[in-house]
Specification:
Elements lengths: L17 H4 L6 E2 L11 H13 L9 H15 L8 E4 L2 H11 L6 E6 L3 H9 L3 E10 L2 E4 L1 H7 L4 E7 L11 H13 L3 E5 L21 H5 L1 E5 L2 H4 L7 E4 L3 H8 L2 H4 L5 H13 L1 H23 L5 E2 L7 E5 L8 H6 L3 E2 L1 E2 L8 E5 L4 H14 L1
Helix pairs in contact: 2-12, 3-12, 4-5, 13-15
Length: about 375
Amino acid sequence: MPAFDFDQAVARRGSWSVRWERYPADVIPLWVADTDFLAPPPVLAAMQRRLAHGIFGYNAPPAELRDTVVERMQRLYGWRIEPDWVAFVSGVVPGLHLAARHLMGADQHALLPTPVYHHLTRSLVHAKRAYTEVPLVLARGRWIWDEEFLASAARPNSRLLHLCNPQNPGGTIFTREELQRLAMFAQQHDLIICSDEIHADILLDEGKPHVPIASVSREASRRSVTLISPNKAFGFPGAGCAFAIIEDAALRQAFCIDHHATVHDPSVFGYEASLAAYRECGDWLQAQLAYLRANRDLVQREVAAMPGLKMAHVEATYLAWIDASGLGISDPYKYFLDRGVALSPGAQFGAPGFVRLNFGTQRALLEKALQRMKKGA
């Protein structure tokens, strides 16, 4: 495997970075979920070739990218899909909002896990759709669905079940058995499953595979909208390319019905980057996962040694979900910000006593941030 230098620091202030420019220069920003790593060399080369071409007109989704997605789903998951099931969007977040607005009626109800990535919640709030929060519970060190609560939360008008798989912020890789039970529940209550699977490639625990919920059965596939993107795993969210895999033609038509009225297409650079990432960057991804795995282990050791803090084991993502309730303070986000570390506030995900830490950065910077947190804890 070629050597890749993830310790190489790249100055991001002054580059319009959302993460790096929100806070003063003396604050270490470990909040929004993007990494501080250079994009893979084949991705950069693909963008440079397109730049050299010099024309940036309107572009259709490339057929070779559809075919690559089909091949990837079969190779990684044994999931047979057809090219016309793939609907391209600029990002997973717009896909979540399209699902909430177009796959359920104004008088219908959704089921939403909590804590969860806040755009799953916002999609329902902005669409003015009723929903019930279904708590995730910590069981044997993993954040999983409270299936008993879920069963009691279904209503006659329930239509949509939101899923984040792997789970953000908890870091759980849901097992095939857990997903099969969830898919059976959706079938029993005639629910559409909208599954955010953007972190599917960021698997830190070896031997624990990602399972797309739509792949567990044909019935699950027919009622699922699976949102996927290489943006997170391969480091180009600013280029923007994602896709929904939707088998059911009526669901797909509803999802795409006003696509150009509300959501723009991916950029040509997003198409180029995605194709290069999926075709040429397997070695780079494995090297990045090894680096993130060591960062994860460092965070878990340091947090375990800090009085008042605890966290579950992170199976996937580069995000640590830290329980700060033991500090006995009302706002742990502000507490750590005052000590020079910007984390994501747990309230954003539905759990005010928590904070989320992004460890997708150079180890030296991560160590510095953890030392600041240790002095405060």
